[in-house]
Amino acid sequence: MTDELILVYNYKNLKKALEYRKEELDQKIICFDFISHKYLRKLGISHNFAEDYIESKEKELIDNTTREIMFSWYDNDDIKNCLIYKNLNLGWLLENELYGYFLEVIKNFISLKKIIKDEKPKKIVSIDSLCDISKEISKKTEIEIIEYAKTEHSGLAFDKIMIPFNFGKSVHNIQVSRKNAIRIKKFLDDTTSLFLPSNIQEEKKSILLVDFNLSLYYDFLKTLSKSNMNIILLNLRKPAVRNIKDLNFLRKNKIEVINYKKFQKSELVSIVKKNQIDMSKKLEKLFLLKEFECIFQIDGESFWPVIKDQMKQIFLKRFNEAINYFEIVENIFKKINIKEIVTLNDVGYEEKIVLSVANSHNMSGYILQHGMFPDNSYAKKFLNILPIIPRFGFKAAVWGNYLKEHLLEMGVSNEQIISIGSPRHDRFFQDTKVQNNDIVICITPQSSIDFDSVDTREFVKAEDMLHSMIDIIKEKKCNVIIKDHPSQHDLDISSIVHDIDSTIHVYKNQNIFEFVKNAKIVICIGFSTVLLEAMILDKPTILFQIHPNWIDEQGVISNVTSLVKSKDEFEDVLTNLLTDTKFRISQISKGKKFVKEYMTNHGKAAEIFRDVLIN
Predict the structure, then answer these.
(1) 537 phi/psi in degrees, rounded to 5
(2) Is the pLDDT of residue 154 over 70?
(3) FRET pair for 148, CA 20 to 30 Å: which of 75, 161, 480, 608?
(4) What is the pTM of this model?
(5) Distance (Å, rounded) from C-alpha 540 to C-alpha 590?
(6) How far apart, in whole angstroms, are the C-alpha atoms of residue 404 and residue 425?
């Protein structure tokens, strides 16, 4: 039992929280996030983790409830009627982003319920969101609840957008609100249009590429541009052109970039505004429904009152945006003669809009595999939010027979799958293999899909492991290079590394190819496609797996990399790779064998896929 609890969540308000700290009182500080933990640790302030109160049965409850709610709430008949826009369920559209948001809410709800039960506090001091949950849980008690700060609600994963820009040899990231990101994108798209005026030839058929990162697919696009078709990029999420190199490449290869603003004529703007007003009226009715109280509950208690207001704001903003995108894409498909559509996933918000409209026009296309997926049964629980099973009548263009067999086992028909290899990895097979004294550590924060993936203690373990790795590598007189995953995530890897060793530079958006090509050894913290890329380039690999459920210890990837779980295991493996030639060659050979089994059409996948698309 504790008289007072100070709940810390969001480090920006930590100073205010600590104003309530009194040495003479019976208090406990409980931390709900990793960054707040780091600050508390620096200050030498003792604290517990919220996760310390969660046992295995609660973990299972959190995971199962999140999946059950998130993969079905939008299909409730009464709710669904208010979510449909031209046969598109707007609630389903947000499934991928809402998943992480609700996982965090449900985890905090259960954590607080358990904390209050175990500690039986007389007073709770916290930020507004945790106070709201505490009030909901402790309605029948006399706990005093004090709010020390109102915070900006985190919202969905892409309510803030990270935009990379190249300045000379450096790549800098600017994180802005979604609203400002859209403004910046429009400005950059308009600027691109000045240098790349549209020249889509109406008599030709077109291949539409949705939200491609140019720098990863230069070779494929160059090969594709040699066909007698319009090659068109449609990037709704981020600008297609990010630097002068991109601009020159597109101009030289006569590849078109759609500025969707050009398809947003005045009559369409009027239609969109009318439809947005109609949707706002639907939302007013939607949030009067009692069904939400029953659906959004866990362990017999509803958490809907805690999230209702924020959900209303999220829906209003995103649904209005979706209606705008839907009508623009509809107009694009009416004006351009599209033969095939290629996208890298079919679970993203923007991709779902494009593919839903394409499906209504009976257009075909391919979901091109863009990474190495977990191959175990655990991943099958999350197929709704993982781009593995092809939807919308599209085909899966996979890297090889390994994933093809995996898809067949999951019920995908043979006609829906084509093995073409990986167009973006042709260069990996064609380039000369070299090495220097670099050891590359690639960090891949895992997706927020279950309790373990948002457990603060797991981040602490990963940070401690990274610290140990850097110290050991430096002891071995090797250079350390840190490569952060280019995806958008909350962890500031640069500051974490700076705290360990301020002389080490962290790279993020730079192409992984040169780093891996020149490396002596490649280390991954977190399951990553980089393991496969290193094996293509004849590099031995080490994996420290953050998320324990993503891979099986006797699974296919575990047998071809060196899987380590501790500092001592890492040091032993690293020493052997550096000093034992026989062991090093053995590990490289295992990797080469895996690449041969996993991927097909080595070095010529771009040409193979081009022929598939144009014939």
Answers:
(1) -90, 20
(2) no
(3) 161
(4) 0.92
(5) 9
(6) 18
